[in-house]
Amino acid sequence: MQNNHPPKxxxxxxxxxxxxxxxxxxxxxxxxxxxxxxxxAMDKLKGPEYPDIILxxxxxxxxNGFDICKxxxxxxxxxxxxxxxxxxxxxxxxxxxxxxxxGVDFIIKPFNNAIIQARVKTHLDIVRQQRQIKHSEALLKSxxxxxxxxxxxxxxxxxxxMLNQNFIMMWGFPPEVIASGDKDQFLDYGLNQLVxxxxxxxxxxxxxxxxxxxxxxxxxxxxxxxxxYSEPLIQDGDKVGRVISYTDISTQKILEKQLTRLSITxxxxxxxxxxxxxxxxxxxxIRATRYQRELSVLMMDIDHFKQFNDxxxxxxxxxxxxxxxxxxxxxxxxxDWCCRMGGEEFCVIMPDADxxxxxxxxxxxxxxxxxxxxxxxxxxxxxxIASLHDLEPGEDPDELLNYADKALYTAKNNGRNQVKHYQxxx
Length: 426
Ligand SMILES: [Mg+2]
Hints:
The chain has 15 helices and 17 strands. The protein has helices at 16-26, 38-44, 65-74, 92-100, 113-145, 165-171, 175-180, 183-192, 197-209, 250-264, 274-291, 305-312, 314-331, 355-371, 398-413, and strands at residues 8-12, 31-35, 53-56, 83-87, 105-108, 150-155, 160-163, 214-219, 225-235, 238-248, 295-302, 337-342, 345-351, 373-374, 377-378, 381-387, 419-421. It starts with 7 loop residues before the first strand and ends in a 5-residue tail after the last strand.
């Protein structure tokens, strides 16, 4: 029954006359193979090619047709070949036995040609459909296994319909949970592996009832991150279950974090960069004005930095920048934001610090740097400060940076190595 070849029928009967009659009836539509004894039949069923259907006599001198059938049903290669008994035995008991041992049909001799043709056709149709279903299942199975995702499908009652190996591998489900085929057991085991499993339970239960698609990220206790996508399984317009797929996005997440860190920090000093500074000043400005808190900004610059580079080389220059940055991180509070604006210019955003507090912190930092040595060299810095109270109503938070910058210029012009607060009239 492959491609365009006509299906093969094995006719087994010890009476040549019966074989002849059956053959005449079926030869136009099928390829006929014959066996005139039980042994001959078993020979023809050794493979590698097999008939698509068997018409089997029961009473034969060597082997009984029932025994042949029983034997065929024990072998995987022949188990699914439909067997139609064609026999002179006409009792219900015989018929019952024939069906019980795996025969698909029972036709009593003398037979009617049209009935033989119809029954053979019916059973071959069933075989064909079964093969198609098997083929579809195999195709579905190989498709399920051909993805990197872990996939699981439940029906409406929470019974497992299918899953792939990746699903088992990703989650490490134990065999007893898989064998249970029960959604709740899968859920319990899965939630237990999540950082926030308990908090998610209720949502998942609700999602299970709903017709919605859903995607979310799951953080596992072992550090991996999965993305989960689920949607209802629809058949003929009705929701019959739910499909859930998982993708391991841990590597992607690590790369994202690295990328984010790179995009907001200065590679030499590890301080926040100018881009991040502008986001920070806006966020802190909004927070400070909303909650009526203090906010101060320090702008600082290494005095005569160019001379260090020119006289001692860029390696010393870099060393000064790195050492100063380390001091900055150690000196200022955890809540303060230390940034490198570029070159030798730095900025510190100090939430909850009023002018006096910021002036004090800046002055102590200036002295700290003065006392610091890099390769026996002394470094001095100038610092300009502005606080929230320096802003006129309606002014932009960027103006705070601007005012601190102006104060820094004043410090420079006044002889460097000093801290200055912004003065509007200067
Ligand atoms: Mg016979």
